[in-house]
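Hi V.,

You were right to ask for the full record rather than a summary. Here it is.
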Amino acid sequence: MSITTEEELRKLRACGVIVARTLRALAKQVRPGITTAELSELGGRMLAEQGARSSPPMVYRFPGEVCISVNDEVVHGVPGDRVIAPGDLVKLDLTAEKDGFHTDSAITVAVPPISECARKLTRCVERAFAKGLEMARPGNPTREIGRAVEREARRNGFEVIRELGGHGIGRTIHEPPSVPNFADPYARAALTPGLVLTIEPIIAAGRGGVATAADGWTIRTVDGSLAGHFEHTLVVTNGAPILLTAA
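Predicted structure:
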């Protein structure tokens, strides 16, 4: 969506604060012995306490409140009886709705003891986001965000997962335009002031190929390599972008 009123921005900010607060609190609960189902249920309760609700179940009938992907699971991991173990790399992807507006954010949490690969990958997705954010300026095509993300991934010896990327958001989870994580020549949509979108580097330690698991939701790397994910929802402005989910 593209923001046209201060009221829309106010409501998006309010939803973004809830997502940011909930994701930070949830990340602190990632530890050996807790199950992904317990983490998801906790996230759902936190949202409800703040007058919000998880977007994926209401929009796509996703079977969980939070997408939780572990190790070679990239995105859309279905919460269940999997127990978090020492050394796991856990991706928490939270999208919430409040007052008709949606915001989306994701973080990668490394459970000690942390391997050098996991440490490097976790840092890389955050730096790649920062590089992509620099390109979120009016007039730039979305592929410039992707170009910056991929350049940072490759500089660190990793590969972006080309099938996955950011997107417009606001009145529902996924809206135009798509925001690739590479310099897609077809991603020509120009950014405009007021546009609400996500930038979300999704990066693999291996070759970057992915497949959907038997549950029909979870996407994982074909070669079993670790994957990292980092995401914020933002508003394009004539100056620096407004980060809605970093409050």
